[in-house]
Amino acid sequence: MSPREREKTDFRALPNPSCKRCRTRAERKECHEDGLCTEAVSALDGLRLRCVGPWAQEKSYWLCQYFGIFVRSMHRRWQGLNYVEICSGPGRCVIRDTGEEIDGTALAIVNHPRVEHLGKGLFIDVNPEIVDTLNSRFTALRGAGRATAYRGDYTDATSIAQTLDALPSQCLNLVFVDPTDCSVPFATVKTVFETVKNADLLINVSIGTDVSRNIARVVLDPSFCRTRERYAAFLGDDAFFSRSDVVEAASAGQVDRLRQLFAEEYKARLAEHGFVYTDLQPIRHYYYLLFASRSRKGLEFWREACTYSPSGQKEMNLGL
Prior knowledge:
Largest sheet: 7 strands, mixed
Order of helices and strands: EHEEEHEEEHEHEHEHEHHHHEEH
Radius of gyration: 19 Å
Number of domains: 1
Shape: globular
């Protein structure tokens, strides 16, 4: 896929004069509550925003590139295509470094040129204000009739399954899980793909931030029990932390090695359920988008989507 063939996604970027451009974590904490900015509202529609780093649009870019290929290639081969997003956010974001406002992943999908081939879009977030805000934004877009936001706690797999039961059976689904850290339990992800049956998964894994900061101490220091419990839930059990290669890497301070082992463990757990075709796409040094499919064709589509960066440069697969 050449740069000329890439589908252009309009993130509807515009300056937000109310953004304070918070530089430190302390400043962001003062201007942030329950996942929403307390200082600025959207210059586009007057609704609430989420403060994000400059890498957020790159994440949306990779998602939209895959979505376009997924829909273009599959909409005539299945009875229907659906999209599910967990940890959706309010739909609009403001980039704290620049004060620029853009569509988040949810609105980028619903405003995608190929959204007319989508059957249903389900968007789940734990914050009721975020859910109401996103639904208000959907009403202004052409995809509003097929997209709905629901309140759901990703730690409650049963409630997530009940929401997903609204999807028709015998359809192909693209599921995007987008937390800010490694906190979505594997049990929830398992419930999702068991409920929707036919699915490609795209999971935002915080290897470069959450895991890098904590993993060595979690392996070596028993006092980090809460973080260890969270990572164990993310991976599906705690066997990872007692492995000799993991302990050896932690003792030697080999954070890059630990990140690689952590990612491989997660991919292995997915492979146990048939998701043997996996790939990791880095978003700068912060996050990795983990793609997983039971189909080789899905992986081919994903690698096609990742051929070129947002700037049009050819990407190199790092093999993590």
